[in-house]
Sequence to fold (526 residues):
Amino acid sequence: MTRLDSGILRPAARRSLATSACMLLLIGTLLGADAQARVIHQERSPYSTILVNQRGTVICMQFSVRRDQRNQTCMDQRRPKEMLFPYTRMMMASLLLNPAPERILMLGLGGGTLPMALDQLLPNAHQDVIEIDPAVVRVAREFFNFAPSDRVNVVTEDGRVFVKRALQQGKRYDLIMLDAFTGEYIPEHLMTREFLEEVRGLLSETGVLVANTFSISKLYTYESATYAAVFAPFFNMKPDDSGNRVILASRQPLPPPEALEARAAALAGALKPYGIDFRELLPLLRTDIDWDPDTRLLTDQYAPANLLRRR
Amino acid sequence: MTTSPIVYVLAFVSGFSIMSVELLGGRMLAPYFGSSVYIWGSIITVFMLSLSIGYLIGGRLSLYHPSLNRYALIFLGAAVCLYPLVFVSEGVMNWIFERVEDPRYGSLLASSFLFIVPTVILGMISPYSVRLLVVTTEHAGQVAGMLYFVSTLGSALGTLATSFYLVLWFEMDTILTTLTGVLLACSATAAAAARWLPTHAPAADPTVASGGHAR
Fold:
């Protein structure tokens, strides 16, 4: 090959890309990302365009300017604790498997709803929150009451790099939450068997993993098979009315229904202000396999998650 | 049939291989250093640098008894240096990950270790091809243009095929092994052409002396 110039870096192409992005942005703003919602903040980062919009007292964070984009996170200013998204509430079900985690790792910040809730509920817990995009951290602090502290430590880094480094340093966590996927793009190196094995290696004896993943598209079966290869059996929380599916796994055997109900009863009061109703969550804790178990696993060698999603 | 169509086809394949490896490179580094823009910065920097060095060396080599047999040796060398990536890349990246904290420099170092040698060798193919193809000074520019066209077209196709389809169908190691096989086939083709096809004996052409390597 004779390459005088790399296509990827060609300034002209970059300029035209930037121009079209600006135009899209303009069009998006003119049309209004949502009929009633008002854009109150937007900023571009190396990873996405972050929009904050407001409708009444509800503030939402959105990645990308496409009008069909789902909100990443929302908060009602009148009841800031309340978790408005089913997937966030489902992820809190991890407390049923380990009610008092002391060391928590969270990959992907979003609006910071989960770390803030856990910080209020578990004053003795220490959290490491890994977010690749510094702009997301800024927006979460400014608009979503996210407050890093000596108990909530934010690291701006790629999740996989942090996990590998943490393994090397011998760190262990009692609860690991994976929420690093936007609706737009999947970091493919965070959806492989090797990555999940590394995450499993970070779990303490009583450690619990909870992951927000996809329930639609062909990716579902690939992802399920890959999680099953590392974490089976797990609770596969998959409500009918959500594009999200939450996987809940533990180093310990999964508790029987009676134990789950007892823990739910004990936690119900504390979790009520967050909009969590265990009558909604308990029936979702199912372990049946509704994917083809022979599906090819996603590995570091074979990780076309984004291509599979389009199918 | 003369040898020139073969040289063009081989240059096309080398262009294809370079970009295919470059794209795989980004995916190889991701588990250790992330998938941020600096990964591509490292990869592209290393590939650009390696190609530029390869162009220089390939041009220099073409001064001394240019032949299809030596051309075949370049492809052989590229294949031999590409194949070990299948075995050593994890060890190399692990070693670097343990020693370099900053993923930017880690990825730069890793891509240097892994990709400089095969890419330098692949870069030698273009100028050497020009030397094999040029018959008269008058046509030297046209030949070079055609060669750039063909090899860059190969690069475009290698990029597209790898990112759209190959990674969806195959494991990375399978793709690398196949590329190695393809480069070996290129080497064999060039050697066979040297043996059985008539050449236009570029070295014997007196006009080339002024155009190809003026001194």
